[in-house]
Amino acid sequence: MGGLVIKLAPNERILINGAVIENGDRRTRISVRTPNAHILRLKDALHPDDVTTPVSRVCYVAQLILTGEADPRDAHPELLVGLEQLSEIFPDPERGAIVDDAIEFVRKANYYQALRRLRQLLAHEAQGPDAGL
User: What is the rounded distance in angstroms from the CA atom of residue 28 to the CA atom of residue 48?
Assistant: First the structure.
């Protein structure tokens, strides 16, 4: 049993390969068996106007790949460069491990998991450099 399992809250929307899918009134669980499907929870989507920080810029590139708006062949190197820059911004072991994990996911072309991992840094970044995770 492989693939990605997505748990959706009632009425939650998700983008799968360009199609917006809305869940019904109950929680549900979806198993995506197609490798490399473009998937993004709409509640997690970044609006271009909100992309103002180093972490949000890297997340946005991953998001563009997931939504099919960017060709992975072009965006993949840009994403890796951004992640390398983040590893310099977050040299501490805890946040550095998050960036390292994201780098490994990107190297495996697993952009969904990379974005999931990077979202943990967004909250920290919004709180400032002295905030904890």
Answer: 29
Query: Residue 12 to residues 8, 25, 49, 81: CA-CA distances in angstroms?
Result: 6, 9, 23, 33
pLDDT tens, 75-114?
Answer: 999 999 999 999 998 888 999 999 999 999 999 998 988 9
The answer to whether residues 47 and 76 touch, using CB atoms and an 8 Å cutoff, is no
Q: Model's pTM, two decimal places? A: 0.82
> What is the Cα–Cα distance from 92 to 97, expressed in whole angstroms?
8
Which residue stretches of the chain are H helix?
Answer: 54-67, 72-89, 93-107, 111-127
Rounded to the nearest 10 degrees, the angle between the axes of helix 93-107 and helix 72-89 is 170
Containing 122, the helix (H) or strand (E) segment is: helix 111-127
Q: Are strands 39-41 and 19-22 parallel, antiparallel or unpaired?
A: unpaired
CA distances from 95 to 42, 52, 85, 86, 132 (A): 25, 19, 13, 9, 9
